[in-house]
Design brief:
Blueprint: H1 2-16, E1 20-23, E2 30-36, E3 43-53, E4 57-64, E5 88-94, E6 101-107, E7 113-119, E8 132-135, H2 139-142, E9 145-151, E10 156-164, E11 179-188, E12 198-201, E13 217-221
């Protein structure tokens, strides 16, 4: 019953536009869930992102269910190509318009992170058009935190993440009432299928690309 409900909600979101979510101050949590692939909407391992905001940060708790691979490259470090393996991601922009510039944050099962501002003026990563990445390297000094736990017996991994509001010119204590565009993604791949990934998303775009901002969901901090 629950799976059927989630599937119908996902189909409705695809046909009527990006989903929306109201997010309260911590410790109250709002949850974005998804279980469909990009772009063909077949079954995907259930994935959740629980959100809230504090005086100075956006807090996210990623949960990747039905995990069998926990696959990553141990040699990779901060801001390297961790997206080639298994990651959970969020794209975040302040405002309610389809953004040209947004934060991309990724975390893998080894708690390695990727964080950068993306400049995507076509909003769809058009071939031959500008597409620039501006890395944030000093993550602790900038206010990022990430803590990842693996539970292989339960086929689960999760990451608790904090992203500073100041990155988006939101002053401390001023988050309530702000509107955002966000999306959440997960990649699944096994050693025997690498580099061919299965992709899942909260607001699933119409092709296998995460950088299509008209499909970002609408989020309001209440």
């Amino acid at each position: 019953m629950a799976a059927t409900l989630l599937a119908s909600q996902a189909l409705a979101a695809y046909s009527t536009g990006p989903p929306s979510l109201q997010v309260s101050a911590c410790p109250m949590l709002a949850v974005a869930s998804y279980n469909k692939t990009v772009p063909d909407q077949t079954d995907f391992p259930p994935t959740e992102v629980a959100l809230c905001y504090t005086n100075d940060s956006i807090n996210l708790a990623f949960s990747a269910h039905n995990e069998t691979n926990f696959y990553y490259d141990r040699s990779q470090g901060t801001n390297e190509a961790i997206w080639e393996y298994e990651v959970m991601e969020t794209f975040i922009a302040l405002g309610d318009k389809d953004p040209q510039t947004y934060l991309e944050f990724e975390v893998n099962p080894n708690n390695v992170t990727f964080q950068a501002f993306i400049y995507n003026p076509t909003k769809v990563r058009a071939d031959g058009a500008p597409f620039e990445t501006f890395f944030i390297n000093n993550t602790l000094e900038a206010g990022f935190t990430a803590f990842t736990m693996l539970d292989k017996d339960q086929h689960l991994w999760g990451s608790s993440v904090s992203i500073p509001l100041g990155l988006f010119n939101v002053d401390n204590g001023s988050a309530q009432g702000t509107k955002w565009r966000m999306n959440f993604f997960r990649t699944v791949v096994a050693p025997e299928t690498f580099p061919n990934q299965t992709l899942g998303a909260w607001s699933f775009p119409d092709k296998a690309s995460f950088h299509i901002t008209p499909f970002f969901g609408h989020v309001e901090f209440i």
